[in-house]
Amino acid sequence: MRKLMLAVGGSLFLVAPVSQADVVGLGASVSYWDSDLSGQAATNNDVVDVENDLNLDSDANANASLYLEHPVPLLPNVRLNYTLVEQSGRGDVGLTGFDGVTGDVQSDLDLEQLDLTLYYEVLDNWVNLDLGLTARDLTGDLIVRQANGLATSETSIDGVIPMGYLAARFDLPLTGVSVGAEGNFISFDGDSLHDFNAYGQYEISLIQFRAGYRQMSIDYEDGNDRLDVEIGGPFVSAGVSF
């Protein structure tokens, strides 16, 4: 399945025209994402609702990105993006329980992903359009502990996943204001991952400020473990570009 997913994602490069920056460009940004979580986790044929049963709530979400654009023909531009989502909560899985854990529980969910994106600039004026391919290194761990400490369950996913990449931005001339959206996506054989955001941006000199909304959906199976969750909420970011 993974080979077919890679082939599907890689086909984006066959249709992307070669268009590069006129000069070398470098940029970086950091952001805070205030997200809510919903969905289910499953292990060993047991299923739990992460919102209603576990009462998971956001502890910390962080995001950082770095990109390099260059004028070298045929070679793609490069973007690195790191996202960390941490959720915890006290809940109740009842007498039927989840994976051997029953009653009151303390739960922690950690999702970590590192993206390497290779992309081409298809348009680069007041309308900007980028197309490319992302390799996402995704790890996720859900720990559910019985309140009395007698039983613990762990649900884990781990994989490197190819995804399509699309980014568009529209600049309002002479204002420093722009609006845009970007996303990664893949869907195949029951697994799917989607990660989109839409934003407004204000740029002054080398500094960029963004505010928008990000929605991430993960439906991924790794052996006997599966995460089927959605994470969404507003974000703010600050960055520099040279």
UniProtKB/TrEMBL annotation:
Tree of life domain: Bacteria
Species for this entry: Marinobacter manganoxydans MnI7-9
Keywords assigned by UniProt, alphabetized: Signal
Signal peptide: 1-21
NCBIfam families: OMP_w_GlyGly (TIGR04219)
Name assigned to this protein: Outer membrane protein
